[in-house]
Amino acid sequence: MWVKKTQLEIEEEKKIKKSKRFKNALIDSSVIAFVFFASQIILLKIIGQGGKYSNNVEEPLAWTEITKQIPALLGFSFAVFAVIFLYEFFSGKRIWKKETSSTYICDRCKKTNYKSTMTKCECGGTILNANEFKWIPDSNS
Ligand SMILES: [Zn+2]
Questions:
Q1: pLDDT score, position 37
Q2: Which pLDDT does position 117 carry in this prediction?
Q3: Domain-located, residue 87
Q4: Which of 12-16, 26-30, 42-46, 68-72 is predicted most confidently?
Q5: pTM summary value
Q6: Residue 4 C-alpha to ligand 1 middle, in angstroms?
Q7: How far is the CA of 9 from the centre of ligand 1 (A)?
Q8: Which of these, 78, 90, 97, 72, lies nearest to 30 by C-alpha position?
Q9: In a domain? residue 70
Q10: What does residue 102 show for φ and ψ, rounded to 5 degrees?
Q11: Which one has a higher pLDDT value, 17 or 48?
Q12: Ligand 1 ion: nearby residues, β-carbon < 5 Å
């Protein structure tokens, strides 16, 4: 059955989340910056720089040309890294992970089929996000 977490448990979870914040922000921003960097290289190799330098004809760049672009790309990648790292570190959020569960539960009758827009259950209970509950197996059934 669903049991509401105590304040202590919620605090404990927050502490654990906080301790992982630096590491998570570092991992997420590194991965995204790397994907950004790699995709730019691939794009340059496949379609070049577009019309800007080549009379609207998309032509792939030679590897020697791409090598010349690497310092600029590294700069952009670092900017991407910094923005995502700072965002995640200071907000405590992860950009590809939803913070709230999509499940909502009534704190009285424990029904679970609710949408986030509902706040009151028909039984008179309050509908809360599943993050505020924990699942405990029934012992007497
Ligand atoms: Zn209810």
A1: 96
A2: 78
A3: yes
A4: 26-30
A5: 0.69
A6: 14
A7: 23
A8: 78
A9: yes
A10: -85, 0
A11: 17
A12: 106, 108-109, 121, 123, 125
**Of 96, 118, 114, which Cα lies nearest the Cα of 105?**
114
Same domain, 32 and 76: yes
Q: Give the per-residue pLDDT at 56.
A: 53
Q: How far is CA 85 from CA 39, 40, 80, 94, 99, in A?
A: 20, 20, 8, 10, 17
**Is 60 exceeded by the pLDDT of residue 51?**
no
Specify the 3-state DSSP secondary structure of 105: strand
Q: Which two tokens mark 128? A: 């809360």
Task: Identify whether 131 is part of a domain.
Answer: yes
Cα(122)–Cα(88) distance, rounded to whole angstroms? 38
Question: 137 CA to middle of ligand 1, Å?
Answer: 20
**Domain identity same for 75 and 45:** yes
**What's the domain range around 35?**
7-91
